[in-house]
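Catalogue entry: protein
Contents: sequence, fold tokens
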Amino acid sequence: MTKTIQHQSSKIFFGNNLEDNLNEVLKTEYSGRKKIIITDDNVFDIWVENLITSVEELNGAEIIQFPAGEENKTIEMCYQVWETLTDYKIGRGDVILNFGGGVITDMGGFIASTYKRGIDFINIPTTLLSQVDASVGGKTGVDLGGFKNQIGVFALPTYVFIEYKYLNTLPQKQLVSGYAEMLKHGLIEDIRHWQNLIDIKVLTVECLSEYIYDSVNIKHHIVVSDPTEKGKRKALNFGHTIGHAIEGFLLTNDQTVPHGYAVAWGVLVESKMSVKLNLLNENDYQNIKKFISSTYPKCPVDSSHINELLDLMLNDKKNNGSQINFTLLDEIGSCIVNQEVDENCIIECLKEILTSA
């Protein structure tokens, strides 16, 4: 059964076999318009032919293919695509379809929203992480060195098609990565969602797809209340101030980890901070720690690199002035935004979670 959410000016479809829905949208709203599919090597090899042959309106669509990986999420790559769009004579009435994971939906949305001051784009996320997070909410952007999503704009896709079958070809670590964002949604907003997720015995596409709509709906309600992240939307940053620093540090040292793993490590550190600031009780923290530690590997960054992590945090786009800004928990299912944490507290909590040098 197909479910939908009207998310601001975007309509989000959920289900299996959504090709007819996509074809109807393209036929009704973009008939006679040029269609550009932006994708990466992995998705191209597995799914692009299936998409084009299943959606009549995509016959003759141009395809722009990226090498896969976070390391390619750069302004230089965007420049190449803008040149290609110009060569194809793409106009403001045409449409881009971002077909891939979070790197593709983030970067493709940024490319579309800045080309000729903005053309329509549709997101077709193919990973669990992009389905529950990156493709929804209007954040687009690219990385700047070790700084995640440092260059970007708020821009909404016209449609999002969350097709569960694409998850069937993901390696298990990608399911575990997306699971971290779903867990975060439960921790910040809905204890029942958290409990439903931790009660899953084996992470399968069938089990997880049962809760994808719920997870996106949590994010939807938060974003609608604060589209440009002035207040409540900052709740979604829980786990990300630390997580982005870890991910950025590893990226600049030629190591990549799934984004959700970094978020999970961030959740551990920031939950510990919540206890240190007398916001979260010890029992809730131990329950979070036990589950995260049993589900995710130990963080590969050791405590000798704390100063480098702090430098990355100080340049985080979520900060105000020179203070590092956090979202912290006051209980499972509830959080408090705009928490400035003393550097000594950050260091102490990092040391507890990171491996020793």
